[in-house]
Amino acid sequence: MAEFVEADNAEAIIARIETKSRKIESLLKQYKHVEALKTALEGSPPKTRDERCKSANWIVVHRAIMAIKDIDGMLNALDAEYYDILMKYLYRGLSTGDRPTCDQCLKIHEKLTERAGLGCILRCLTDTLNTV
Length: 132
Description:
Belongs to the ARPC5 family. With 132 residues, this protein is mainly α.
């Protein structure tokens, strides 16, 4: 079973997420959208059950997802190791009900499913330990 960080260490996790957020903002300003997405997905989901950490990390990933314009190019540049975690965040995005977020998540979901197959969806939905 994976180790989870207790809530008293949540502040340290949030500090790391804030550092990651600044790096992602810098990458986005340089139009390095795929690098921003990779950076956002690294170390995700945070090994904690603390919802503050999960929400802070979602905000970072959301910014990177929304910046993607060339989905095929993004998937070509993204290593397969990121597919499952990206799928989890796409479902999180769909759960928001926000129209622009849902539209972007559905576009990426379609292309990601073509690339990674249905197994990616199944792994995402059955992994109850590493939630985003």
